[in-house]
Specification:
Arc Repressor Mutant, subunit A, 13 helices, Enolase-like, domain 1, 6-stranded antiparallel sheet, about 50% helix, Beta-Lactamase
Length: about 350
């Protein structure tokens, strides 16, 4: 509720979160007054801290009189108190220049994005390669190799390339193969496997055979799950005090290293649309492995055509403003690269 907290309580909650992110130590009323020059007594601040604890925004370790944020406190901070944040202009320029230099080298995008995310947001970064929402035909090339053997090279929208060796019943010249490829490219460009299948019977025999093979390859591609995940920064995050206990560290490692678990989290947490940043705090009651963690995630690419995901994983005591602004900015850069490469090209 908007009126659950007073203006002073919202200010104090924001200060507690920011201070705890920096120090990893429980925050006392005296520390708030002295560090931020508050014009009220420590007794007043102490009463407000107690009220915030009653409301579930703060808690305190049994060995300390100071308070630390709860998951509810972090959530309130992210959704109501943080406000709009952006990386400093110079950092954005530096990052943009790095991606500009790598714009022609698709293989460098993902490791570069993971490195930039980890270094800038000071967390464990993960980036999935872009994947087509549904395979769409771009063009096919038939290359005569020797005798009756032909190499079929199928290029799909989104940059996926598939190859398959064919053994023809009789030899065909490269000229004949080129003519068949050209006709198929004119008829099938931009179509899905389901859209190509009904047209196979209408084609001449040789082209129909090639089209049937294309449909089979595209159908198998659609059935494949997301591929490589690029990671960076895990070892640094594991040095944070929250992960001194083995159980919490194991949860962090699992989400970073176990592909099926990561895919389940991404599928459940992210919508298919590009552009929104999603913040998961403490596992959101769904993933026990993430109880001590927060995930800042976004999807990049072109909605409905080709997308990937990226994110920052760290302790719930993370710098949310920096993590959110970094994820949003890098996702935007990757979306621009994907559009220029797969849509404009």
């Amino acid at each position: 509720m908007d009126d659950e907290l007073t203006s002073r309580q919202r200010t104090i909650l924001g200060l507690v979160v920011r201070e705890y992110v920096e120090t990893a130590s429980p925050i006392s009323s005296r520390a708030l007054v002295e560090n931020y020059g508050l014009d009220v007594s420590t007794a007043t601040i102490r009463n407000e801290l107690a009220r915030l604890e009653e409301l579930g925004y703060l808690t305190h370790p049994h060995t300390s009189a100071g308070r630390i944020p709860t998951d509810k406190g972090y959530r309130r901070f992210v959704t109501r108190l943080l406000g709009g944040v952006e990386l400093p202009l110079q950092e954005r320029r530096t990052i943009a220049h790095q991606f500009y230099q790598a714009r022609q080298d698709l293989e460098q995008w993902m490791p570069l994005a993971a490195s930039v995310l980890a270094r800038t947001a000071r967390g464990a970064a993960l980036v999935t390669a872009p994947q087509a929402a549904e395979s769409r035909y771009k063009h096919v090339q038939l290359i005569s190799t020797q005798g009756q053997s032909v190499l079929l090279v199928l290029v799909l929208r989104g940059g996926v390339v598939k190859q398959q060796m064919l053994n023809l019943l009789e030899p065909s010249s490269q000229e004949m193969l080129n003519e068949a490829s050209d006709r198929l490219n004119q008829l099938l460009s931009g179509l899905s496997a389901d859209e190509i299948a009904p047209r196979v019977s209408e084609l001449p025999t040789f082209e129909a055979e090639i089209a049937a093979i294309v449909v089979s390859i595209m159908s198998r591609t659609n059935a494949q799950t997301a591929g490589v995940v690029y990671r960076d920064g895990l070892s640094e995050v594991l040095q944070q005090p929250e992960f001194a206990e083995g159980e919490h560290a194991q949860g962090l490692v699992r989400v970073m290293e176990e592909h099926s678990f990561l895919e389940a989290v991404l599928t459940d947490a992210l919508s298919p649309e590009v552009g929104n940043v999603r913040v998961l705090i403490g596992g959101e009651g769904r993933w026990d492995e993430l109880q001590a963690c927060s995930l800042v995630l976004a999807r990049y690419g072109v909605t409905g055509l080709i997308t990937g995901a990226l994110g920052i994983l760290g302790p719930t005591r993370m710098s949310y403003g920096r993590a959110i602004s970094t994820v949003r900015y890098v996702a935007g850069l990757l979306s621009d690269l994907v559009y220029d490469t797969y849509v404009e090209s």
